[in-house]
Design brief:
The structure holds 2 protein chains of 2 kinds. Chain A is of the alpha+beta class. Chain A is built from 24 helices and 22 strands. Chain A has 4 domains: 138 residues, HPT domain (Four Helix Bundle (Hemerythrin (Met), subunit A), Up-down Bundle), CATH 1.20.120.160; 165 residues, Histidine kinase CheA-like, P2 response regulator-binding domain (Alpha-Beta Plaits, 2-Layer Sandwich); 183 residues, Histidine kinase-like ATPase, C-terminal domain (Heat Shock Protein 90, 2-Layer Sandwich); 137 residues, OB fold (Dihydrolipoamide Acetyltransferase, E2P) (Beta Barrel). Helix content of chain A is 45%, strand content 20%. Chain A is globular and about 100 Å long. Chain B has 3 helices and 11 strands. By secondary structure, chain B is an alpha+beta fold. The chains are: A alpha+beta, B alpha+beta. Chains A and B meet through strand 21 and strand 22 of A and strand 4, strand 5, strand 7 and helix 3 of B.
Chain lengths: 710, 175
């Protein structure tokens, strides 16, 4: 069957995006409340809002199973909302909602990946059953004190008791525009909106979101809804109704006459005049019990508070307006264009035709242009920057789940989650981080609490995720305070797997620790659900390398392990120094250059393997001849004729030998063409290429790789 | 190896000729257009839909760590395109580039490659009666880049299988 109705495909992407965002929010709230072991009214309302929106949009898209699922979840929270205390220590609630959230994510992924023909909605009936059981259980826990209103059905049952007599309620009949289609869903959406402003007591037809036939009813009779505005503010609700999409007209029907009466008879009810009275009269007694309990202060000065709330809502509304979501592809295009502009700018300013001319006003204008393009570039980059918080918070879920499954007590500490990184990098970080966190939980933290106590560590283990900026890089560390890496174990395992390339005694501690990043390495004796299948660390490493980063391990036995991810802040534009080697022009990122120098013969030394070294201010540095490294023919082979560039990466220093320096220029990094991705060019020490002002191509040197391969 | 290829192909051609004659009555409807070019004396062809453009040889930036037939990368209007010397790829001797040397930029969807050829000849219309398919002898290494063989009045033309040329050797090279 087709996934979505014709005409809805364009909405699908939006739906998926929105629902995923909502699910993430849901997870976050649940994690927080589970920690605190109490639901605040705010949290519950937020959960309600999320469930509701998901329900509504799923119904809109025609994903009936998803809609049902949200509906059942909502039912459960309905009970909790009435009496938040009962959810205390009710772990099954969390388990269940997490399960629901996971099912959602799985289903959405399925919707995304499956083709139209093979798509069949997953059957959630088991989960429905569980949710209903849980709802019953909660109700039972609540005991006999529950007022009739609490049962979810009561809200929609036509016999809703007592509502008619309570002041402050209002019934409205809404008509939708002729031929706007799917009236039932529009009614449902309207209902959702009203619920943000008021308690909906009754509506007719009551099964709008699940019963497509109700659309006809609505067309014929209109959609009846009885509600009581929060703090008696029914006017706001009316405004909402008025402002809702596709609403053609509405009329207000007196509440006393209406609530128990069947809809057909409501038709002739009088309008406007009646409405004024109840609104004014209800100030003190009306607010819903739950609301009153949570914020007793509000009842006292209901009008003032209502006003304040309205202001807040307006403010929120304004904020929402200032954010737009943009298709990433458009940003990529924008980004490419800015790259082109910068290249073109260099083409103009450094145009060979201008050589030797005194052009005062041109230089001035050129400087101005450079300034503006710099700003433009910064702005475009900043658009693409998103905080890491989203990815980090997802890890909370993993720690929580594994804590329970592995029976290890641990907490996740986040640090610097507001650090911003390019969107494309953030997307690529999710999987590696997940792997690393799992690794910390599974392998890092001691499985026996006694071991921790014996080692004088707190019983509760800590997994720490931190992020910070450092010189054009983002450094993300995932650390635990567990047992650390056992070098002997690693070495033995490596020997067994045939990963050793030299005698065991020659390996340094650091080398051994980094062995766990090799393909096919796993020290865990038992394969668990989470890790230890031998895939993992090497995949993590290559994932990170794909987005231009590096991964390293630091560990102290008995104290813990730290995984350090270094990722360039922006992938695209770097300040580069251009060097000429024979016919080839290389670009070295300025950030890795310490200094450039000409040499005198007396500074040069040879080590035992005939490697060349240079003594600068009492320190010896090895020399790497670029023309030898890249097998380029050049006339400049005498070190004294060329130039040396002292580069520094992660504490390693090397002097690169080139023919001469050409100059400094911001360059737009382009990846090598796809066709070449099968060859290990990156391993040769080149990270990409760039088009220079004159149209020729320069190769960008990745100093880190260059040093490690030579 | 180059002679091998041609000998082999001619051999296979002979065996096919009889069969092909029957086909000759087949329709004269145009199947496709083919861009033909020379490598030495032999005429090769590439189906037009694969061809993006033909350019002169610009300065080529060499790239380390790649097979010798990949001459490097060039800048085609701000797009970086790798270039392959067809001569070396087909095991012929390398010759210096002349005025006539061209780069044919071909593309299969997301991968673009420039092919260095001795000179470009013509664009010809191919009808069914010209085509004799290659026999399915995949173990003949050089044969696998040939998609079909055209028998024209002015000689035999070998149509290259661009997607194999671009993709297949990738897996071969990795091995």
């Amino acid at each position: 069957m087709a996934k979505v109705e014709a005409g809805m495909e364009s909405m699908l992407e939006m739906y998926i995006f929105e629902t995923n965002t909502l699910l993430e929010q849901l997870d976050e709230i649940l994690l927080r409340t589970e920690d605190a072991n109490v639901f605040s009214t705010e949290d519950i309302n937020e959960i309600f809002r999320i469930m509701h929106t998901i329900k509504g949009s799923s119904a809109m898209m025609g994903f009936e199973n998803l809609q049902q699922l949200a509906h059942k979840g909502e039912d459960m929270f309905f009970v909790i909302r009435e009496k938040p205390e009962i959810a205390k220590d009710a772990h099954f609630v969390y388990e269940l909602i997490f399960e629901v959230s996971d099912l959602y994510k799985a289903e959405i992924e399925y919707i995304q990946t499956s083709s139209d023909d093979e798509f069949t909605p997953t059957d959630f009936s088991k989960t429905f059953k569980k949710l209903m059981d849980a709802t019953e259980r909660l109700k039972a826990m609540e005991g006999g004190e529950a007022p009739a209103q609490i049962a979810p059905e009561a809200a929609s049952a036509p016999t809703a008791p007592a509502t008619g007599t309570q002041s402050g309620t209002m019934t409205v009949r809404v008509f939708f525009e002729d031929g706007c289609k799917m009236e039932n869903l529009r009614a449902f959406l309207l209902l959702t909106k009203i619920k943000e402003e008021a308690d909906v007591i009754f509506c007719e037809p009551h099964d709008v979101e699940s019963n497509a036939d109700s659309a006809r009813d609505i067309v014929e009779n209109g959609f009846f809804v009885t509600f009581r505005g929060f703090d008696g503010n029914n006017d706001a609700v009316l405004k909402t109704i008025e402002g809702a999409v596709n609403v053609q007209s509405y009329e207000i029907i007196d509440e006393a006459a209406v609530a128990p009466a069947p809809p057909a008879e409501k038709a002739e009810a009088p309008a406007e005049a009646v409405q004024q009275q109840p609104v004014q009269s209800e100030a003190a007694p009306a607010p819903a019990p739950a609301k009153a309990a949570s914020a007793p202060a509000k009842t006292a000065e209901s009008n003032a508070v209502t006003k304040a709330q309205e202001d807040i809502k307006k403010a929120n509304g304004g904020q929402k307006q200032s954010l737009i979501s943009v298709n990433l592809a458009k940003l990529d295009t924008l980004h490419d264009i800015v790259g082109e502009i910068i290249t073109t700018e260099s083409m103009v300013i450094a145009n060979p035709d201008l050589d030797g001319l005194e052009l005062e006003s041109f230089s001035k204008a050129a400087r101005q242009l450079r300034k503006l393009t710099d700003e433009l570039q910064d702005t475009v980059m900043s658009i693409r920057m998103v905080p890491l918080a989203g990815v980090f918070q997802k890890m909370g879920r993993i720690v929580r789940d594994m804590k329970i499954k592995l029976n290890k007590d641990a907490e996740l500490v986040l640090e610097g989650e507001n650090t911003e990184v390019d969107k494309s990098i953030v997307d690529n970080l999710n999987d590696p981080l997940m792997h690393l966190v799992r690794n910390c939980m599974d392998h890092g933290i001691e499985s026996d609490v006694q071991q921790r106590i014996a080692a004088d560590k707190p019983e509760k283990a800590t997994v720490k995720l931190s992020a910070r900026h450092s010189a054009g890089e983002v450094i993300i560390t995932v650390s635990d305070d567990g047992a650390g890496i056992d070098c002997n174990k690693v070495l033995a395992k490596a020997a067994k797997n045939g990963l050793l390339t030299k005698p065991e005694s020659e390996y340094t501690e650091k080398e051994i620790q980094n062995m766990i990043l090799l393909p096919g390495f796993s020290t865990n004796d038992v394969v668990t659900e989470y890790s230890g299948r031998g895939v993992g660390m090497d995949v993590v490493k290559s994932n990170i390398e794909q987005c231009g980063g590096t991964l390293s391990v630091e560990s102290e036995q008995g104290k813990g392990t730290r995984f350090i991810i270094r990722i360039p802040l922006t992938l695209a534009i770097v300040e580069g120094m251009k060097l000429r080697v024979g016919p080839t022009i290389f670009t070295v990122p300025i950030s890795s250059i310490k200094e450039s120098l000409m040499v005198a013969n007396n500074q040069l030394l040879n080590d035992t393997k005939q490697g060349e070294m240079i003594m600068i201010r009492g320190v010896c540095y090895p020399i790497l001849r670029l023309h030898e490294k890249f097998k380029i023919e050049t006339e400049v082979t005498n070190l004294e004729e060329g130039i040396l560039l002292l580069v520094d990466v992660g504490g390693k220093n090397v002097c690169l030998f080139a023919d001469r320096l050409i100059g400094e220029q911001p360059v737009v990094v382009k990846p090598f063409p796809k066709y070449l991705s099968q060859y290990n060019i990156k391993g040769e020490g080149l990270s990409g290429c760039t088009v220079m002002g004159d149209g020729t191509i320069s190769l960008i040197i990745d100093v880190n790789n260059l040093i490690s391969t030579s | 190896m180059a002679e091998n290829l041609n000998d082999r192909l001619k051999e296979l051609l002979d065996t096919q000729k009889a069969m092909e004659k029957k086909k000759k009555e087949a329709s004269d409807a145009e199947l496709t257009k083919v861009l033909t070019f020379y490598i030495g004396e032999q005429v090769y062809g590439i189906e037009i839909p694969y061809v993006i453009e033909i350019i002169e040889v610009p300065p080529i930036t060499g790239v380390p760590g790649v097979p010798s037939y990949i001459k490097g990368i060039i800048n085609v209007r701000s797009k970086i395109v790798p270039v392959v010397d067809i001569r070396i790829r087909f095991g012929k001797e390398e010759i210096a580039y002349t005025d006539r040397t061209c780069i044919i930029i071909v593309s299969t969807g997301d991968v673009s490659v420039g092919l260095i050829v001795d000179s470009v000849a013509d664009v010809i219309s191919v009808t069914e009666k010209h085509v004799s398919r290659t026999p399915d002898v995949t173990e003949v290494n050089s044969n696998k880049f040939i998609k079909s063989i055209l028998e024209m009045n002015d000689g035999i033309k070998l149509v290259l299988d661009v997607s194999k040329l671009i993709d297949e050797h990738a897996s071969e090279e990795i091995r």
